[in-house]
Structures are given as C-alpha cells and as structure tokens.
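Hi F.,

I've been meaning to write this up properly since the lab meeting, where we talked about keeping a consistent format for the predictions we share between groups. The idea is simple: the sequence comes first, exactly as it goes in, then the structure tokens exactly as they come out, then a line or two of notes. No screenshots and no reformatting. I'm using this chain as the first example so we have something concrete to point to.
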Amino acid sequence: NKANDLILKKRIYHEHRVPHYWILDPAEGTLLVYRWSADGYVEVLAAHRSERVRAEPFDSIELPAGVFFGDDEE
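Output, unedited:
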C-alpha cells in the first residue's frame, strides 16, 4: 500500500543504502524517483505517465513514462 511504500520501505531501503527508489502509482499514473543521500532520499523526478522522462539511474535514455505502466512506447 501507499503508506508502506512511502514510509516503511523507503526507510528500510535508505538504511541499506539502496541508491535509487522508484514509486509507480498506477491509480494516479505517476512516477516518483528518489536518489539516496546521507540525510534521506531526495526526489529527483516526478512525472505523469504521459510525459517523456530521463529517470535515474537510466537517465541516458529518454522514455515515455507510460512504458513503466505497460503502455505501448510511442
């Protein structure tokens, strides 16, 4: 659930120094990308499924965010 992903998992992943943490919300059609820092995760991308993105750590490639939701690439 959303609270579990945004609080508990995020806290655990930070503790274990997972470099990037992505949250895909299919109900809202949004993608959030966070980057690890010593003080906590920093949001580096917030996008809607209709946007094209360069999402860390794969930011050398631009993709429609919708592909992360199973949409056809356009």
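Notes:
The beta strands are 20-25, 30-35, 42-48, 52-53, 63-64.
Residues 22 and 33 are 5 Å apart (CA to CA).

If this format works for you, I'll send the rest the same way.

G.
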